[in-house]
Amino acid sequence: MNTRTPTSVVIIDDHPLFRKGVSQLLALNDELQLIGEASSGEEGLEIARALEPDLILLDLNMRGMGGIETLRALREADLAARILILTVSDAADDLVAAIRAGADGYLLKDMEPEDLLARIVEALRGRIVITESLSGLLARSLREEAQAAERSLAPLTEREKDILGCLAGGLSNKLIARDLNIAEGTVKVHIKNLLKKLKFRSRLEAAVWAIEQGHRGQDPGGAR
Predict the structure, then answer these.
(1) 216: which residues sit within 8 A by CB, 6+ positions away?
(2) C-beta separation of 28 from 117 below 8 A
(3) CA-CA-CA-CA torsion for 179, 181, 186, 188, nearest 10 degrees?
(4) Bridging pattern class, strands 105-108 and 82-87
(5) 121-159: pLDDT as tens digits
(6) Whole-number pLDDT of residue 145
(7) What would the pLDDT profile of 154-207 be if each residue is shown by its tens digit?
(8) Contact yes or no for 143/96 (Cβ under 8 A)
(9) If you write DSSP's letter for every residue of 61-94 in order, what string do you get?
């Protein structure tokens, strides 16, 4: 018998039919439990603060408070939730802006339902989730930027390199702390420092770049 507490999910999207479709999709997986819906960024921020979900599915293009603005506000609220962008936009500018604002993944709404559900579950397990057709686009954008910035691993301490490898493996702060036998607060400090040294604005940017450099640690769920 599975006694695991389901992952709580909130959807923020201004299209009611899409919210209904995602709700029906989530109901197919016992690991997921929809606990709230919002039709605007303002309402979504209020609901997320009140319910503190494990996962937020966020639309990018909404009337009023847009997805990027909502994402930044959610991050500033210091919520522990993983936040996935669900959008119709495959534009490089939107993708990079979302990652830099703190998104944990970027998925297109036209994915096959079973693929979308699988990627959502992957995200909950700490993996980087970006629609396959866009991952190369993001990597190329970061690679060009890195060349311009002459970005390298040289300024990092050995511990920061270890943590960068863990980020590339998709590990959460809690799993990094457990694997490296250090406090979660210490992990946060190291991540802040390595992002500053590498001139990245988000951990996902750093992770994608590290994978491109071949600097990758263990995948979550792998051998410990």
Answers:
(1) 165, 168, 169, 210
(2) yes
(3) 10
(4) parallel
(5) 888 877 778 877 777 666 666 666 655 556 778 889 999
(6) 62
(7) 889 999 999 999 988 878 888 899 999 999 899 999 999 999 898 887 787 888
(8) no
(9) S-SSS-HHHHHHHHHHTT---EEEEEES---HHH
| Token couple for 136 | 């190369």
Q: Are 14 and 58 in contact (CB under 8 A)?
A: no
Q: What is the band of 223 on the pLDDT scale with cuts at 50, 70, 90? A: very low
Helix, strand, coil content of the chain in percent (nearest 5): 50, 15, 35
Strand partners, 12: 38, 58
Structure tokens at 102: 């703190």
| Amino acid identity at 220 | P
CA 54 from chain center: how many Å?
Answer: 12
User: Looking at the DSSP assignment, which residues form a beta bridge with residue 57?
Assistant: 11, 84
Quick one: which of 113, 190, 185, 135 has its CA closest to 159? 190
Structure tokens that stand for 124 in this block: 């909950």
pTM attached to this predicted model: 0.72
Q: Token pair for residue 4?
A: 């695991």
Q: Does residue 9 carry a pLDDT above 80?
A: yes
Please count the other Cβ atoms lying within 10 Å of the Cβ belonging to residue 16: 10
Contact 27, 20 (CB under 8 A): no
Tokens of 79: 């919520």
With tokens 């590498």, the residue in question is 198
Task: Compute CA distances 130 → 8, 103, 160, whole Å.
Answer: 21, 10, 24
Quick one: tokens of 129?
Answer: 């989730």
